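Question:
Write out your own:
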Amino acid sequence: MNFFEYQDKARRSTRWLILVFILAVIAIVAVIDLALLTVFGLGNVDFQQVGFMGAVTAPANLPLLAGGAIATTSVIGLASLFKTMALRGGGGQVARDLGGTLVDADTRDVRRRRLRNVVEEIALASGVPVPEIYVLEEESGINAFAAGYTPADAAIAVTRGTLETLKRDELQGVIAHEFSHVLNGDMRINIRLMGALFGILLLALIGRRVLIHSRFAGGRGKDGAPLILIALAVTAVGYVGLFFGRWIKAALSRQREYLADASAVQFTRDPNGIGGALKKIAVYSDGSYLRADTEEVSHMLFGNGRKALMFATHPPILDRIRRIEPGFQQEELEVLAARIIRDRVREEEEAARQAEAAPSGRGALDAGGILQGIGHPQFERILMAAALAAGLSENVRQAAHSTEWAPEVIFYTLLDDDRAIREEQLLAIARQMGSESESQVRALLSASGPVKAEHRLPVVEMAFPALKRRPPDFIEKVLRTVEALAMADEQVDVFEFLIARMIKRDLWEASNPHSARSSGSRTLEDLRTEAGTVLAILARHGHDRPQDALAAYRAGMEMVGGEQPELEQAVPADWAAALDAALPKLDQLRPKDKQRLVEALIAVALHDQEFRATELELLRVVCELIHVPLPMLTGSA
């Protein structure tokens, strides 16, 4: 199953969730009405006239039943709406609610620096913005989760126990597992599930509390009997809600955990990474359990948040291990436990080896392999990302992680090679942002020299978490400055144009995660003209000779189908405005139609069997703007 099929499945799961939620509410209403009839209603019926079944439908009880139904649906609906509104802040809000502490970009802590390096490597390799990173400081169990509506507002959180217990390859396996949830749409379903199920789970919490307090009223004579009956009824209702809530979460979560484990192995090409993490959960007495109440978030955790007696959201830990390592026996955990005691301290040697390793064996360009890597980048991509990050100057890397310097890093990536144009751009920075900002950009340029073409997009992605923490009015100034830099030479470069749109879109989604959409219901047949425009612009900017551009364009249009306008007609004079009009519409394609479009884009770019830097940037950013995380590529794929 590829990225686009996962997206389709995620959309179907959302519709299924709505249906089951409605059925759960109906069941809860039925239980509450039955309880109301038992306590208050049966006395209003003459059994000699209507019989027992008549008690259920007697007109005298209709106001009671209707009132119970309205009150119940109102409580569930309002509670779920309240929770959904509270989650509008996206993934970071979920992490903070569980006690998460944001990992500073310039942290000096060795374990947190290792965590940030791992997250950045996988994000860059996957072609998505670097998410916010949190640590649950009070949790000693081994656990993690990814939360958010889209990759732009995603947050990755791990427990303190994960940092202290896992080696680098094991941590990498856990983070790769969580990135699978980010890339495949699971994360969006998870956060919607939190909001939808809160109303149901609230009844369970109320039921528990009423049952506890009813014990004190039980001995107060016959006046306490109705209170006990009400307590039992509310408790029953609560457990009905708990039953449905856990059933829904288990139905959605268990198979996705197996898939995310498999994706982690594909990410890292090392089954010992995630396998080792799962084995340590099985070995340690506290395992993956958390001190915080995990009832709401249990379905989005890496491991079980607490011992589940009914409908566990995760498969048994030994089953997960055996999926990764067939033939594994439980007795081997005793051997592992003894080994853990001996070598728990060794963590950083592997980090240095992998960061310095050069990627090898990439093989020939393969469109099918590129497409299969969307949402599931191979381990070579992670090594490429690590090598690329290591190739950045220390000044640029530190500035990209700094809230103060992040805007200047983005301006730095847009500086022109021509000295005269570059001076005009620096003056534009001074006018828009002030002389201090200009000085910071000059300092980066002086210390590191002009940015390499292959570094521009990764540097922007690394700076994104720090930039989005700035106030909205400041971000507007940054966007205006980016536009001014793009127009300094009186012509808009493709990268300059698209990077401005990418920053604007990602920052908007980070601020409005609940409103972001990663796909729609449009078909490629509906948007053939827009698809042709993007393919023609890619062909024109990726080939020097007109005949090569025409051949590449036709290769892409054959995959789109239908009539093929001439290349000159497909590329309008104002290509920037044409992209502005086309890309938002193409973002609303169905997942399977997005797959066809991306296949056509790759066909255009690979027509000459090589990727130029301009093509790589254009292809990755176009895919980013239609919510397709294209993995890191090079001229040899």
Remarks:
- The beta strands are 100-102, 132-136, 144-147, 155-159.
